[in-house]
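I am still learning, so would you mind making up any protein sequence you like and the tokens describing how it folds?
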Amino acid sequence: MPERLPFRMRVELIYNPQSGPAVVRRELAHVVAWLTSQGCEVVLHETSAPLEATDLARDAARREVDLVVAVGGDGTVNEVASGLVHSDTVFGVLPTGTTNVWALQMKIPTLNPIGINSRLARLTSERDELPSLLSSLGYYRSVLIDAARVLLEGRTVQVDVGKANDRYFLLWAGVGLDAAVTINVSLEHKKAFGPLSFVGATLETLRDYPCCEVKLTLDGQPQYVNTALVIVTNIQLYAGTLPMGARACVNDGRLDVCVFRGEGVLNYVQHVLKVVSRQHVQDPEIDYMQASEILVESARPLPVHVDDEPFAMTPVSIRVVPRSLRAIVPHAAPDHLFAG
């Protein structure tokens, strides 16, 4: 049976102020006040440097804090989760970032940067009156409080994480094309345009992105493919909308691997359509496999990202770390995400 957190607990929020609209900082005070009113002891940290969230989370786990919450997007989620692997401290999320894939996957109430006019979201960091206007509409506060309710009322489950070389990931690792796209998307564009910031970078990158000869070793079994993109995923959703890991479970001790053969814009568009319709699991031009250990070697160095954060070049060794993270999710989290 899934665990439940105690009603009274120590909670630490780790907030990345560079992720999402500036109005979030103003609304977090209301979240802290609400959690306190529910009997929690709450501490709020703001990060100012890459990977600082991992250090803060790891320190909280050492102090046996009950719950550590990532307040931000997928990058912040990655950093906080990484600091809690193999600990008894529970991982939670208040999603305020660009795409918030973990929250979307788990049905956690989520700020919708597509639904909000992205230009307004950008202007909130430039004009003092706009944060007040948006706050008065109650949108941010309502969603954040609803997400905070999950922290107290949800269920705690043991989930897998992946590990690429020495970096953990909760969502996915990508080799090749999508890692090249993440390199080309600036923080300023993410804040200004949300998920739409990836569209232009993707179109620009894939136009001339060539395939490469790749040796892919899955659980000790090698195979050779000509590909521009390898995705290794722990969850089903990719980029917030695509059911890339159609058969993935977050606690089955395996990672799902998608290898996209061929190159050229038309070929990539066909691949996307296959993924949207979930036909990619049977398509001969897309290899869909599962494994616990994956080694990716390539004829030329290919970029690698974890949870949309570029961090290395091939060769890269990727493996699953089974049920190594305690995460709180809503009771509405889809059953098909969990094995047995």
In short: The radius of gyration is 20 Å. Residues 23-37 form the longest helix (15 residues). Residues 114-127 have pLDDT under 50 and may be disordered. The CA atoms of residues 259 and 287 lie 5 Å apart.
